[in-house]
Amino acid sequence: MKKENYMSPEDWSLVKSFSEERETPFLVVNLNIIKKRYQELINSFPYAKVHYAVKANPADEVLLLLKELGSNFDVASVYELRKLLRLGVDPSRISYGNTIKKAADIREHYEAGVRLYVTDSEADLRNIAKAAPNSKIFVRILTEGMETADWPLSRKFGCQTDMAADLIVLAKKLGLEPYGISFHVGSQQRDISAWDAAISKVRYIFSWLEDEEDIKLKMINMGGGFPANYVSRTNELSVYAEEITRYLIEDFGDDHPEIILEPGRSLVADSGVIVSEVVLVSRKSRTSLNRWVYTDVGKFNGLIETLEESIKFPIFTDRRGEVEECIIAGPTCDSQDIMYEDHKYELPLTLTIGDRLYWFSTGAYTTSYCSVEFNGFPPLKSYFIQ
């Protein structure tokens, strides 16, 4: 792997100089890279509204930047709502994108001025009707293709197409505005055709509702899923946009419905570098072919997405020389705190205690996944540069 494949020499120099003399572990986020990714997204999908998935990186600095750039926001909880309101985000730019929510939290969103809600069940829909009357509703459907996503989404969210249609019909009866259909093809989705299958399902629901119930939906929420720059190769965002646009035109023609995107990872991941320190290097036997490299960052303080080795972050060190495959583990007294054992990274034989490891593309789902005090370790520190 080459650093230049993941970050420009200028951006890397900025991160490296900032990182010197600071105690590890910590995350450095380059806000200029987020700005570039946002511009790339809106240039690739000029017809779409962007609702940033706040859960990816909820730092004030990130949210304020995206607010200034014109982004809308998708929230998963009342706590994210309160943060956005504190930062001065107008509630008209916020959607409540979690299908699992308390009636009291729906009410707080409604009283704050939020009018766009997702659902995938009758019980939740009835809660919305009571707590947020006359609001716009979109229903999330189940999709296929999760096996080609690096961080697949389970069947916890979404419903089958027949139930989605039933919920839209019920929403109208309950006095809500049937607004659209949503889906999510899985995070870090490498198979672009997953969007094709999902959009075809949406086309069927749109047509059935218009023909059978005289309900004309207005919006498709295509969720996230666009890639960040990890070890496994993906297509460029422009290729995703070209193909997805073609799918939309094939199913809906040039006059397709309003489109919403909910990117998280693709906007912020590449902006971040976690700086960690090697705590220990050891072997389990005199004849072991692999070293164990223990670092002061692990699954419980930033790297939970290495669970089942799903996300493979690019890792770099200043050390040079002959390399050997390693097992990389975190600092806690928990046997699950092993990041990479099956997929072994090659690190220099000269690597030793006190050396630094740099984890690229770690701007998403690192600080927001941290434990509060597991084994006494504090949440991952984060710094912002531009």
Please provide a written account of the structure.
Strand 15 and strand 16 form a beta hairpin. The protein contains ten helices and 18 strands. The chain has helices at residues 9-19, 31-44, 60-69, 78-86, 103-112, 122-131, 161-173, 193-213, 237-252, 265-268; strands spanning 26-30, 48-53, 72-75, 94-96, 116-119, 136-140, 149-151, 177-182, 187-189, 219-221, 258-261, 272-282, 291-295, 315-317, 323-329, 338-348, 356-360, 381-385. It is an alpha/beta fold and 386 residues long.
Would you tell me the structural class of the helices and strands?
Answer: alpha/beta
Secondary-structure arrangement, i.e. CATH architecture of the largest domain: Alpha-Beta Barrel
N-C termini distance? 25 Å
According to CATH, what is the topology of the largest domain?
TIM Barrel
CATH structural class of the largest domain: Alpha Beta
Count the strands?
A: 18
Helical residue percent? 25-40%
Question: Features of this protein?
Answer:
elongated, TIM Barrel, alpha/beta, 8-stranded parallel beta sheet, Lyase, Ornithine Decarboxylase, Chain A, domain 1, 2 domains, 10 helices, 386 residues, 8-stranded mixed beta sheet
